[in-house]
Amino acid sequence: xxxxxxxxLRVRYDTPRGPLWAVDQLSFxxxxxxxxxxxGESGSGKSTTALAxxxxxxxxxxxxxxxxxxxxxxxxxALDEREFRKLRASEIALVFQDASAALNPFLTIGLQLxxxxxxHRGLSRREALKESARALGDVGIPDPESRLHAYPHELSGGxxxxxxxxxxxxxxxxxxxxxxxxxxxDPAVALAVLDLLKxxxxxxxxxxxxxxxxxxxxxxxxNRVHVMxxxxxxxxxxxxxxxxxxxxxxxxxxxxxxxxxxxxxxxxLAAVPGAPAELTALPPGCAFHPRCELATDRCRxxxxxxxxxxxxxxxxxxxxxxxxxxxxxxxxxGAHAEAxxx
Amino acid sequence: MKRFVLRRALGxxxxxxxxxxxxxxxxxxxxxGPFSAERRLPAAVLANVEARYHLDWPIWxxxxxxxxxxxxxxxxxxxxxxxxxxxVLAGDLGPSFRYRDYTVNQILGESLxxxxxxxxLALAWAVAFGTTFGILAAxxxxxxxxxSLRLVAALGIALPSFVIAGLLVLVFSLALGWSPVxxxxxFAHFILPSLALGAPVAxxxxxxxxxxxxxxxxxxxVRTAVAKGLPYSTVIxxxxxxxxxxxxxxxxxxxxxxxxxxxxxxxxxxxxxxTGSHFVASALSRDYTLALGVTIVYSVLIYSLNALxxxxxxxxxxxxxxxxx
Lengths: 342, 325
Ligand code: SF4
Fold this sequence. Notes:
The complex is a heterodimer of chains A (about 350) and B (about 325).
Chain A lengths: L1 E14 L2 E14 L3 E5 L6 H8 L8 E10 L2 E2 L5 H7 L4 E4 L3 H4 L6 H13 L3 H14 L5 H4 L9 H13 L5 E5 L7 H18 L2 E6 L2 H7 L2 E6 L2 E7 H6 L4 H13 L35 H5 L21 E2 L4 H13 L1
Parallel strand pairs in A: 3-8, 3-9, 6-7, 7-8
Antiparallel strand pairs in A: 1-2, 1-4, 4-5, 9-10, 10-11
Chain B lengths: L1 H28 L13 H10 L6 H9 L36 H36 L4 H15 L2 H15 L12 H30 L2 H8 L4 H29 L3 H6 L5 H10 L3 H29 L9
Helix pairs in contact in B: 1-12, 4-5, 4-7, 4-9, 4-12, 5-7, 6-7, 7-9, 8-9, 9-12, 11-12
The structure holds iron/sulfur cluster.
The site of iron/sulfur cluster has 12 residues of chain A, from loops.
């Protein structure tokens, strides 16, 4: 069952240096129980996409120019703010990345969870707190009843993160947007967070949109991956196919850079040679061409569209739905196919 | 809590002692005395008067006599007020040098309640209007409402209080006849002066609340509140307001002390015999004891209100522990 479908999304921000399109021609689907990853460098549009799904683009100062986001038979982008508000946290929830900043330091954990249920489920404070304690227990916080009265600074870092996840899950949303859910965490807590997300998918059929630059994480957890560059999806594929046999030079570079850097978790993407595209001054043709080793004259003039492979004789199996936006994808795919065959 | 109160009480005593000592010495260092400005007195009379107020004593003895608690005036020059104890430590601020038949305690006892009443009312306006307008402006920032509120606040800060007072009297007393012009006999007499006195404070509070709130609106946790689908009013009042009010709270401590001790200008305009006029007049006329008395009241107020602000901080921000202050 398709939970969420994004069609042809285009988001504009007006900056002092001119307009920029943080997201352009973005389309993807999220099935029930699935985890779809959006991958890219910062500025690739992956976080803006997350904001758009929550209807928070106007809040961040941007404009959704075109596009539709379908959820439960309704186009979310046609909803007014009041209606959209009712969906946030109850149907579509954001899983925040930095628990020390995302929790309100002035309010108790209990209140911050309970208010979600009060607003969306119409529960009384007492019922909502009871339910909140259950949610805290579900994410593995010991003695949840007493933690209700704690302020965020009174919890350990790991517990704060768990409490934050519990807050995202407390109203049992169908779609979870996880924006770098593990970046600020130590590995043990990160694993726990991923486990929780997995449980939501398996037990309740929730869908997760994972926004991340952590390729290992994406490789290990996501079903499908959309690689974004300069606001556009430049390659989409099943997770295991994507990195093992990339079609797009950028995807290949990302994966190689990961291998080179090894242990340095945070800096994998920065290791792709060249500077990320400037959104206010995108190069003509393929936005990646200034950094691409395979760039030809055509790449500098024309923009490639997302499409499947043209020739079957490269030896790469044509999986349905797999696409890349590159004129030379046959060469990239072929090279990797040979490497694997050898 | 107990420790906090104890420490602040100790701090208060120490602070007031330092203030009294410094003020006492400074008053004596400044040229001129309480009786030198008047019509030149015959030398014998002057000596007599000065002896009556112990101005012929060495400074250290005057100081000890003023501070108390022992009355060093063994000859009983103060006539029927002779007693073993006296001075500030015994709660006696001494006789006024200018108002010959009054003690400083009597003068303050009459004027301070008026100033405190006026000041409290002014503070109430300032807090009520200041926070409401500040929150409104921040919640609707960039709109016409925000712009007009900011303009009003700028006026409130820029206009001297006597201009505001004059305008208020002109409109509400003279044109509309809703309010008495001057005096202090009924509650209605206090409305206009307290509005005039509170206006600049309200304007500052509105400004601080607005900027504080806008600052806290950009915090991650406020974004969280929005992403949780909470109504905008809850986002502002529950999630953003706490952090946004803190700067205004710290401003209000010292501002309250200033407002509560009265304002010379406002008291003159509305003919309210409060403490504000004594503060200025006593310093100019070298009424040593009255000036010191007013200074003590002022420093006690400032110190206590600052302690109150610290206490309020711990109520507003759970990360600040009372015991650490
Ligand atoms: S289209 Fe050209 S420039 Fe762009 S990625 Fe492919 S080969 Fe490189």
